[in-house]
Design brief:
two-stranded antiparallel sheet, binds ligand PBG, ten-stranded mixed beta sheet, 330 residues, TIM Barrel, single chain
């Protein structure tokens, strides 16, 4: 072990200059890691910035094409779509209507930006009057009734052009139900990215403003995971893997790097991490106050998520990071 003893060992030798630092660098952030979230809303000619998420916009269907073209031109391979429908009801029927907001966006995007990979967030909270992620019965979510509606939603997404579906509602049995529904309707080639370990997190605050999806009563702790539980995350991931998930997700990312690392080591599926709205807004706010260098902080956070084991990252920083990569700033 002499080798590791000072003065033989001088780790600083490998930090002397950018070239050698590059050669020994273990983790890199690339364009291929990025998935960009997109909010599509009803109406026409609308591009509106989300107040708590500077730089992130809600687009009407006629405006979303240009936004996605820009993302494609930056070299980002995929977007994940979230919808804000014109009318909500108590079951979220917009989610499986051919005239639903996501269906309209899918048809347009598939036609006009065919080389972009389109992922859809599959849930109900943006589409229900009560803001919960399924069908309500006696003040609680009826799990199995919700599965029936989830099946209709994914089949409708697939028919209208989704390349992949990403169920985020944390219903038990959702991956199995969705896999079966897709297969029965001739969509056995459409993969499922399951929000497997999704925690009941305060970091979703800005998203709920953006997507108008805050629950009108109570909270989501009856279906999303307790932030205290690390082992249970593995249970959720294993269940989803056995039900047929192609990709598993950990969400949020930054406060759950241990979970990302566990998942990476425990099973051979690709792992996605969702760098959520609150993680984005905090960095933006700190930057605006002049208290942190937001670009550098964003990069460090995303790098840490990759280092923990994520194969891909859903992040509101996607465009900014892609720009930096393209300019060879990183
Ligand atoms: C549910 C969904 C949520 C997010 C993604 N999908 C909100 C929630 O569970 O309350 C949060 C994403 C973010 O905060 O960026 N449709």
């Amino acid at each position: 072990m002499m080798f590791f003893k000072f003065p033989y060992s001088r780790p600083r030798r490998l930090r002397k200059g950018e070239n050698i630092r590059k050669l020994v660098r273990e983790t890199a952030l690339t364009l291929e890691d990025l998935i960009c979230p997109i909010f599509v809303r009803y109406g026409e000619n609308i591009v509106e910035e989300i107040p708590s998420m500077p730089g992130i916009y809600r687009y009407s269907v006629d405006k979303v094409v240009d936004a996605v073209k820009e993302i494609r031109d930056l070299g980002i391979p995929a977007v994940i779509l979230f919808g804000i429908p014109e009318k909500k009801d108590d079951i979220g029927s917009d989610t499986w209507s051919d005239e639903g907001i996501i269906q309209k966006a899918l048809r347009k995007l598939k036609k006009e930006v065919p080389d972009m990979y389109l992922i859809t967030d599959v849930c109900f909270c943006e589409y229900t009057t009560h803001g919960h992620c399924g069908v309500l019965k006696n003040g609680d979510i009826d799990n199995d009734a919700t599965l029936e509606n989830l099946k209709k939603q994914v089949v409708s997404h697939a028919k209208n052009g989704a390349d992949m579906v990403a169920p985020s509602g944390m219903m038990d049995g959702m991956v199995k139900a969705i896999r079966e529904a897709l297969d029965e309707e001739g969509f056995s080639h459409i993969p499922i990215m399951a929000y497997s370990a999704k925690f009941a997190s305060a970091f979703y605050g800005p998203f709920r403003e953006a997507a108008e999806s805050a629950p009108s009563f109570g909270d989501r702790r009856g279906y999303q995971m307790d932030p205290a539980n690390r082992r249970e995350a593995l249970k959720e991931v294993l269940i989803d893997a056995l039900e047929g998930a192609d990709i598993v997700m950990v969400k949020p990312a930054l406060s759950y790097l241990d979970v990302i690392s566990d998942v990476r080591k425990s099973l051979p599926l690709p792992v996605c991490a969702y760098n959520v709205s609150g993680e984005y807004s905090m960095v933006k706010a700190g930057g605006r106050l002049g208290w942190i260098d937001e670009k550098k902080v964003a990069l460090e956070i995303l790098l840490s998520i990759k280092r923990a084991g994520a194969d891909m990252i859903i992040t509101y920083f996607a465009k900014e990071i892609a720009l930096m990569i393209n300019k060879r700033e990183i």
